[in-house]
Structures are given as structure tokens and as C-alpha cells.
Specification:
Number of strands: 7
Structural class: alpha/beta
CATH topology: CBS-domain
Largest sheet: 4 strands, mixed
Shape: globular
Mean pLDDT: 86
CATH architecture: Roll
Helix content: 25-40%
Length: 143
Amino acid sequence: MTTAREIMTPDAQCVQTSETVLEAAKTMAELGVGALPICGEDNRLKGMLTDRDIVVKVLAQGKDPRAIQAGELAQGEAVTIGADDDAEEILRTMSRHQVRRLPVIDGHDLVGMVAQADVARKLPEPRVGDLLEALSVGEPKPA
């Protein structure tokens, strides 16, 4: 049984709720990632910030990314996966919630991230194909 702990990218870096969106964007660029977990001062997960959030909710609305804090973009409870949850649970959770990245939690601690790419590298092709199909529902078809 393959677990999230075996698939994940360890040591996920958080953006703090008090950091600006501009600081978060710079961190994303430095790390070469498209999303960061948002953590509070207590280091507990508060949500996720994606590059798309920055574009759609900040830049496209003419807001100043130096004036908006990452915590302002954290919406609701983040969808997570337990470190010891199996691959089937990862696939179900990603498909059910239509997410491409899952923070991996051990107790209350963020220990890593499982991205669609991690799943593609570690699981058999048919399972990956099922996930891709599930995540593509509602997306425009290529011309």
C-alpha cells in the first residue's frame, strides 16, 4: 500500500497569513511552484494560495499585491490528506474536490504536499489516467 508520505514532496514551505501576496508570488517563483500552503502564526494550515488566485483575485481586479495579505485569500478549510492515507484516498480526495495539490498533514503538522505530478510519477498509468479525467471535468476541450 503506497501512502501519501511515500508520494509527497516533503518539507512544504508555507506562506504566512501576514505576508503580502507579492512576497508569496516571489516565493513561488523561487521555489518553482504554483501553489503554497497558507499558515497562521500558530503554523497551522489556513488554506492554499495558487498562482491563479493571485492573477484572478488580485491582479485582474486591479488590487495591489503589496497591500493584500495572503491570509485574505484563504477561503474556508483547506482540503488535506493524512500522511498515512493510501493512494486510493489521495485519488478520491483529489477527484472529489477537483484539486491538483493536497497538503499532507501528520496530526496537526504540515509535512509535505502531494501534487498531481507526484501521483503521475509514483502510481500506475491507469490510476493516473482516471485522476486526469476526473480533474478535467468542466475544463474546455482543446481545439
